[in-house]
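Data's thin. Show one?
=====
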Amino acid sequence: MSETTETTVSRAEVRVEGATASYLTVEQDGPAVLLLHGTYWSRAWLPVLGRLARAGLRPVAVDLPGLGRSGGELTPETAAVPVLADWVARFASALGLTGPVAVAGHDIGGAIAQHLLARRRLEVSRLALVNSVTYDSWPVPGVARFRDPAVVAAMTAADFLAARRQAVTAALAGAATEQRVADYLDPWTEGRVRRSWMALAGAADSRHTLDLVPDLRRSTTPKLLVWGEDDGFQRVEYAERFVSEIPASTLVRIPDAGHIPMENAPGRVGRALSDFFTA
């Protein structure tokens, strides 16, 4: 994976409870923006990190424990959204992030981000959700099947990688090149990371977003939803519902973009996020 763009993006590490937490960042002064992935890894944020940095922000795209380049291994218990939100808060503390922090979440990372705000695990200054899970929009069937221990036990490495290749290709939509798909698949060549991903999938539960709705309806924190309109996993109708019900929220629709709009339209997504986080 290339981790260098027009602006220098580097990978760094910090220890969280004895394990390595890996993250992509642009090392510079400026307000931090914490970027959370879901069923992918920090690679999903790479196309927009440079633009965020050029806006004067310090982007931090962390790999959740057991996923991407981070150490450790998730279990069905530690992969639950509330537990991961607590881990993210500890990661932020280990990184020395104090005071209000801007947060963005993609996919299941959006559930973690909503939890950080609604349950006050962090002091969140601004919240951005990019093609995030909301309400009862998740888990999708390809994820929900991993709730069955028999499916997990029978899953071979070859079968897992084939299934993820298909899902990643669909999520990337028009941005799906062989090299890009290979970049996304790379961490899953390691058994520990495959097991962590299956634990994350098995722990996926829409009650972790449904239960937050009352608190979100009381929240005055600014919220931005950025949505690839052609997403077949998280439909834009859920984003429209969110902004109609949740205060201080707006929607930016990204046409001709799928579930990972950072890849389809990095300029438009990066501009929307940087304008929001520097407002």
About this structure: Confidence is low (pLDDT under 50) at residues 1-5. Residues 23 and 160 are 25 Å apart (CA to CA). Residues 157-172 form the longest helix (16 residues).
